[in-house]
Write a structure and sequence with these properties.
globular, 23% helix, 6 strands, alpha+beta, 3 helices, 6-stranded antiparallel beta sheet, Thiol Ester Dehydrase, Chain A
Length: 140
Amino acid sequence: MGVHMYIYEIELKVRDYECDIQGVVNNSVYQNYLEHTRHEFLEKNNISFAELHKKGIDAMVSSIEIAYKTPLKPGDNFISKLYVAKEGVRYIFHQAIYRKSDNKLAIKAKVNAVVVINGKLATALPEFDDLVARSEVKTV
């Protein structure tokens, strides 16, 4: 496992209806932010879930770990970032969300994904392997 760097970021804004009675973003909403970030990232890299599915290839989340650090509130702008690593057959999307106003870490997440090709667990997907390579910091 080498050193990695964030290779994608997107700015988003908290909407009032995403908050709970305590006036902060509900914990479950962060998964929507994370998923939206991954989908936008893949789209920017010309990877379409629909096109992959037509070829019998499905990438699926197998587990998610989220550490909640600083709550976001209505109207907060935030930056959602990610990089990709690989461990065995799993592609690991390391994601973080920072509140834009003070760059405070709101959450850190580790999203484990696997690829299934024609119903069988795959060991690799070239399109995802390229994303892993782009995330690795080259050291001399």
